F-box domain-containing protein
Amino acid sequence: MSAQPLNLNGAALGSAAAAILPRADIDQSEVDRARRRLLALAETALALAQAQPRHDDADALSRTLSASLDDATRVAVTARDLLDTSMYRPANPYVPLHHLRCVPLEVLSLIFEECLAESITGPFAYLSITELLSRQLQPFRLASVCRQWRYAALSSPRAWSYIDLNLDFVTRRNAGSWSACVSTKIARSAQAPLHIRLARTRRRSSLDGPLIQTLTVGLARCSSLLLDVENVSANDALLAVMQADFPVLRDLELCAAKVNHRVDRTFFFRQIPLLSHLQASFPFTGTQFSVPTLLTAMLQYCAVNDISSFLAVAGSLRNLRISYLQPVKDAIPPTSWPSVRMLAIRAEGHRGDAVGSLGEYLHFPGVEHLSLSGPTLGGRDCMKYFVAAAGAMPLLTGLSLMDHDLDTDGALFLQALPSCPALTSISFFDMELKRKGLREFCNFLSRPSDGTWPCPRLTKVCMSTCTFTSDCAQDDIVAFVEARVSAAHDMSDTHTSRPAFLAAVYLPNTADATVTSRLRALLSTME
């Protein structure tokens, strides 16, 4: 019998099928596992593709930050090296040369002089002992820094020319030190002008004499003197200062609340031929100061009698400031002082303030500029003085008011203005301008009652530092300017008293913009 051909494509039957089916199941599971792995691989590839841009960005940022870190590390290393170089090390004692060590002695001396010439804020008599010593010992401390600074300090006489002394701090224990300090400064200042500040608020003491005697050695070189004492008694050591000669004194600040009646005041400051500036609160009655070149004086807490006595010896005085005026002690006749060109008066409205009656005793016919300041009652006293004195100031061209209230003082103010025909400028400073006061002022200057314009030469009104209240009618200013401008342009023969051309009206920054523009347009026609 011939063999049957093998049919590879035939179906498995019987025992063959039983042998093949388990293997087919195994192959099918392998295929399924491969299919799942292929699917997972595809998902992983997709996630990788999505994450690649973020990875690239992070890598770029990492490189940038690494570069910055490297730069910062180099800077830190350089800074540490510089710090190590500049620090003092016992093994290698090297200190970089400071730039001041290279400055010439002459320049360094000038620097010392400018640093030591600082001004004092507040009353000198009330400086603490700590602050006073700090000021007194400054040149000594500069001279102790190093050899070069010592040479510079010792070669600068002006650095030693400031002598500050408060006798209240002198005791038996430190009197010798104070005296040595003063004498050393006088010696090292050579021929430089001295600037002396001397104060005492206690009663006189036996310790004052030796110290004052040391100080008097340099008074002939004193160019500025501050003397602030509570009282001066008979046989007081301070009399040696007040009776000394001051041939080069130019600036004097003198405060003495009380001077004993047994003290002969005729010898006070008899030789101060170069004095140009004086600030004083002092009983001048009975004194015979020699002040032929005095130009400016500020007098505080002085009685009218004292001011009259002072003016009698101040024939060259040009600027006079009076504040806190005390009442008249004894009746004095009216006197006239034509040399004064600028007069400033401040009143606080205290019960004893005598500003209101000043015009009865002292006349200043040569005054060209008058300044009046004082709040509330003080302003009323100033206006009373203005009413009494305005007619005796024919040359008055400038008037300044500060801290006044036109609502309460306006009537007196307007009463005095017609007596000032030469007035060219009116200035208000730090005032609150209200509706009533401003309107009365503007109406007065814009409506002549008898055909004669008040203040016919007025060319400037300044209110730049003032404020307007909310109800203030700023249009009143425009009406006032319009009236003056119109009258100034009126060339008719019947208008015989035309006012001068207004040159400027200065308003606050908070003024209404429309008002400001209208004024600018009006005043432009005067150019």
